[in-house]
TrEMBL record:
Name assigned to this protein: Aldo/keto reductase
InterPro entries, per the entry: AKR, NAD(P)_OxRdtase_dom_sf, NADP_OxRdtase_dom
CDD domains: AKR_YeaE (cd19138)
Binding site for substrate: H111
C-alpha cells in the first residue's frame, strides 16, 4: 500500500483503522479485537481512537488488540475540548495511556475546538511531548482560518471527508497539502449504507472486480497527503479495506464520480459529525 509522511518524518500507509463504537458490546469484543489485529498485521497500522468513544471503551479495546505489538502501530487518540486546559490535557493523556496499556501516544489531537484558548491546550501538548508521553500533537474539526492561526507544530488535522462530503476540497485540503500537513479523513465510507448503496459505486466496483466500499475508499486516498481511517468491525470488512489500497481509479471513474458527487465550487461550512 502507498505510504505518506505523517509526523516527524514517520511514513504510514494511507489507510488506517477507526474505532468509534468498537468495544461497546461485550458480545462483539472478540470479533472486534481479531478484526483490528488482522488489520494491523495486514498493514493498517494507524489506529484512531478517543477518550470520547464509549467513554474509554474503545481505547481499552485498542489496548487489548495492540498488546505485545505496540511498536507495530501508530496510535492516535483525542482529548475532549472540555478537558483541554493545560493540566486537563495532561490528566486526560494519562487516563488514555492507562486504558491503552502503553506509555506513549504517537499523536494526540484536540477533538474539536472548545472554550480553552488553543495556546493553553498546546502548552499541555508540549509538556506531554517533553515528558515523552506523546510524540506529536494535532487538531480535529478545524477549518482553514482557525488552522492557519494555530501555533506551530500541528502534525495533522482530522476532518470529515468522503464522496458525499467534499467541501474541504475547496480550500482546507489544498491548504494542508501546500503546508505539508497530512489530513486524516474520518468517516471515509460515509458511515456505511447511505453512501455505499449508491449504484455508481457498485458499477465502478464491478469494473475493477472490487466492492463499492473499496471504490469509496480508493477515491478518498487518491489525493496526496490524505490518510483514511475507516472503521470496520469484521474481518471481511478489514480485508476489503486493505484491498482498497491497491485500487487505482482511472480518469473515467473519477469523472463519473464527480458527476454523481460534485466537487465544491465555493467555500462550504466545514462538515462535522
Ligand atoms: P466510516 O465511514 O468508517 O464507516 C463505518 C461503517 O462502514 C461501519 O458501519 C462499518 O461496518 C462499515 N464498513 C467498514 N468497512 C466496510 C466495507 N469494506 N464494506 C462495507 N461496509 C464497511 O465511519 P466512522 O464514523 O466510524 O469513521 C471512521 C473513524 O473516524 C471513526 O471510527 C473514528 O475513529 C473517526 N472519527 C473521527 C471523528 C472526529 O470528530 N475526529 C468523527 C467521526 C469519526 P462494520 O462496523 O460492520 O464493519
Amino acid at each position: 500500500m502507498r505510504e505518506t509522511d505523517f509526523f516527524n518524518g514517520v511514513q504510514v500507509p494511507v489507510i488506517g483503522q477507526g474505532t468509534w463504537h468498537l468495544g461497546e458490546d461485550a458480545a462483539k469484543r472478540k470479533t472486534e479485537v481479531s478484526a483490528l489485529r488482522a488489520g494491523i498485521d495486514a498493514g493498517l497500522t494507524v489506529i484512531d481512537t478517543a477518550e470520547m468513544y464509549g467513554d474509554g471503551a474503545s481505547e481499552e479495546l485498542v489496548g487489548e488488540a495492540i498488546r505485545g505489538h505496540r511498536d507495530d502501530v501508530v496510535l492516535v487518540s483525542k482529548v475532549y475540548p472540555h478537558n483541554a486546559s493545560r493540566s486537563g490535557v495532561v490528566a486526560a493523556c494519562e487516563r488514555s495511556l492507562r486504558r491503552l496499556g502503553t506509555d506513549r501516544l504517537d499523536v494526540f489531537l484536540l477533538h474539536w475546538s472548545g472554550s480553552f484558548p488553543l495556546s493553553e491546550t498546546v502548552d499541555g501538548f508540549d509538556h506531554l511531548r517533553a515528558a515523552g508521553k506523546i510524540r506529536s500533537w494535532g487538531l480535529s474539526n478545524f477549518d482553514r482560518d482557525d488552522l492557519q492561526r494555530a501555533p506551530d507544530g500541528c502534525a495533522t488535522n482530522q476532518v470529515l471527508y468522503n464522496l458525499g462530503s467534499r467541501g474541504i476540497e475547496f480550500d482546507l485540503l489544498p491548504w494542508q497539502q501546500r503546508a505539508g500537513m497530512p489530513l486524516m479523513a474520518y468517516s471515509p465510507l460515509g458511515q456505511g449504507p447511505t453512501l455505499l448503496e449508491h449504484p455508481l459505486l457498485a458499477e465502478i466496483g464491478d469494473k475493477h472486480g472490487v466492492t463499492g466500499a473499496q471504490i469509496a475508499l480508493a477515491w478518498v486516498i487518491r489525493q496526496p497527503g490524505v490518510i483514511a481511517i475507516p472503521k470496520a468491525s469484521s474481518l471481511e470488512h478489514v480485508q476489503q479495506n486493505v484491498g482498497a489500497g491497491a485500487v487505482v481509479l482511472d480518469a473515467e471513474d473519477c469523472l463519473s464520480l464527480d458527476n454523481a458527487f460534485p466537487a465544491p465550487r465555493s467555500k462550504q461550512p466545514l462538515d462535522i459529525l
